[in-house]
Amino acid sequence: MNFTMRLFLSSFTILLLHITYIEARGTQHVTCGSVLKLMNVDYNVRLHSHEVKYGSGSGQQSVTGTNAKEDGNSYWLVKAESGKQCIRGKPIKCGDIIRLEHIATKKNLHSHLVSSPLTGKQEVSAYGDHKGEGDTGDNWMLICQNDFWERDDTIMLKHIDTDKYLAVTGRTYGTPISGQTEVVGEYSASSPHTQWSVMEGLFIHPNDFKAQHYQHTEL
């Protein structure tokens, strides 16, 4: 597939997700292969990325929070931890280790022992190659209250390599991402602003599980 076709398909996917909220009838679970937006409960900003690199720290692609509901750069694909696959349509269990791949740039939600730009907490970035592969710094543990990740759950994401929790600080950036909020790794689950909820998305129906398992469709 040539570059033009890949670009067209990527743009079409983003546009489709941008304008459409797909209701997954018959399931209340987030499943492998779901594409969704996560909103920070306290600050009401959606987890976001874009092709803008940090000007300090790692210099990797920046991850922020945005209050723009319709921004297509806030969609993330739910997939298995680094080096593993999950079956499309299979519900994600609380306690599972997952990755979140940024739809528009194919980079994974990532963290590491680097200071964040505004508050000096732990930097959260987007990292990986054009195939959506990075390293173990892309792995996050899903923390929730039930057996499986339900779509109306409030969740936390714990970074496996560093034991930090995905959070928002409330500090905002200037140009070129003016008004967007700093996203960081926090030291404790009891730290403020570590809770997230699922918003808009495309959710894979679990009734498709057997067929997709038969076809060995994996992420």
UniProtKB/TrEMBL annotation:
Residues annotated as domain MIR: 27-81, 89-145, 146-201
Residues spanning the signal sequence: 1-24
Pfam families: MIR
InterPro entries in the record: MIR_dom_sf, MIR_motif
UniProt keyword annotations, A-Z: Repeat, Signal
Protein name, per record: Stromal cell-derived factor 2
Species of provenance: Pogonomyrmex barbatus (red harvester ant)
